Amino acid sequence: MYQGRSRVVIVSGLELWQWCQEARSQAAEFNVPLQEIDWLLQTVADLEKLELRLQSFKTRSQINMQIPLIQLTQLWQRRLEERLPVQYIAGITPWRNFFLQVSNAVLIPRPETECLIDLAIAAAHDQVDPRSISEIPEQWADLGTGSGAIAIGLAEVLTNATIYAVDISAAALAIAQKNAQTLGWSNRIHFNQGSWFEPLQALRGQLNGIVSNPPYIPSQIVPQLQPEVAHHEPHLALDGGADGLDCIRHLINQAPDYLQPEGILLFEMMAGQAAEVRQLLNSQGSYQKITIHRDLAGIERFALAYRK
Ligand code: GLN
């Protein structure tokens, strides 16, 4: 897979245009969205969106590419035949207002998960006097950080918070750490390898907020997901056990021990899980102000609760 390197390969506009024509007809044949070609070329070649859209790059004598065309062709074949996600080919994905490096060691951060950060901002403002939000040092956790998306998103908006990013996978944590470093957040994000709360023992009772996009897909559904997901994304980040709620139950049961009074628990879930999740939060007994929030597609996707 392609990972941002510095080597530059030069191709002619015409060569790349021919590559594009071929890729377009294959995309149509294999039912892959055509926009993926332009997006991929923007990430591996020094091409602007508009040049791609107008195909004006065809007459350029030189275009710098980060990989040779032959390698791009090989990767594109994997997109078509193995349904390898285009983000893993490019090695990056856009998320909120930044780009994250991704590999198949991490789940590709989804657009709907971007809402978790907005909900965290709103919840943090509800929790304290908004005027003091940037003055009080806070401690937040992102459990199951994967690419580090949530931890980085939180670091950006909670300007005085230290974020503890936890993942059981060393390979995922290495990517999260690299992303934090590239985007300039290493000083406020601490990385800890381990299972959920395990590495955060010293923070019992001290966290202002816990945010997570845990695995929540029922085990028997995982193999039926679209092949891009089922065959390439880490099942560790998807499989939530028999009913999909194993990790969510663990979060709900453990979080009260780690949150300050009024501390926030905020996590993502699957369509159809909201009623049961609300019930789990209620019956745990330590939470108040329990709310369910929809994503932009109108799906009940997020649960928010405050420790009593
Ligand atoms: N939203 C992801 C999907 O649809 C699943 C992410 C997760 O389990 N946390 O594949």
TrEMBL record:
Q: Which Gene3D superfamilies match?
A: DNA helicase RuvA subunit, C-terminal domain, Vaccinia Virus protein VP39
Sites where the protein binds S-adenosyl-L-methionine: G144, T145, G146, S147, G148, D167, W196, N213
Q: What is its EC number?
A: 2.1.1.297
Annotated SUPFAM superfamilies: S-adenosyl-L-methionine-dependent methyltransferases (SSF53335)
Q: Any one Gene Ontology biological process term? A: methylation
Q: Which CDD domains match?
A: AdoMet_MTases
Signal sequence segment: none
Q: Which reaction does it catalyse?
A: L-glutaminyl-[peptide chain release factor] + S-adenosyl-L-methionine = N(5)-methyl-L-glutaminyl-[peptide chain release factor] + S-adenosyl-L-homocysteine + H(+)
Q: Which InterPro entries match?
A: DNA_methylase_N6_adenine_CS, HemK-like, Methyltranfer_dom, RF_glutamine_MTase_cyano, RF_methyltr_PrmC, SAM-dependent_MTases_sf
Q: Which GO terms describe its molecular function?
A: peptide chain release factor N(5)-glutamine methyltransferase activity
**In this protein, which residues make up the domain named Methyltransferase?**
142-271
Q: What class of enzyme is it?
A: transferase
Record-linked Pfam families? Methyltransf_31 (PF13847)
In this chain, substrate is annotated as bound at: N213, P214, P215, Y216
Write out the entry's keywords from A to Z. Methyltransferase, S-adenosyl-L-methionine, Transferase
The answer on whether this UniProt entry bears the keyword S-adenosyl-L-methionine reads yes
Membership in a protein family: Belongs to the protein N5-glutamine methyltransferase family. PrmC subfamily.
What does the protein in this record do?
Answer: Methylates the class 1 translation termination release factors RF1/PrfA and RF2/PrfB on the glutamine residue of the universally conserved GGQ motif.
Matches recorded under HAMAP family: RF_methyltr_PrmC
Which protein is depicted?
A: Release factor glutamine methyltransferase
Query: What gene does this protein come from?
Result: prmC
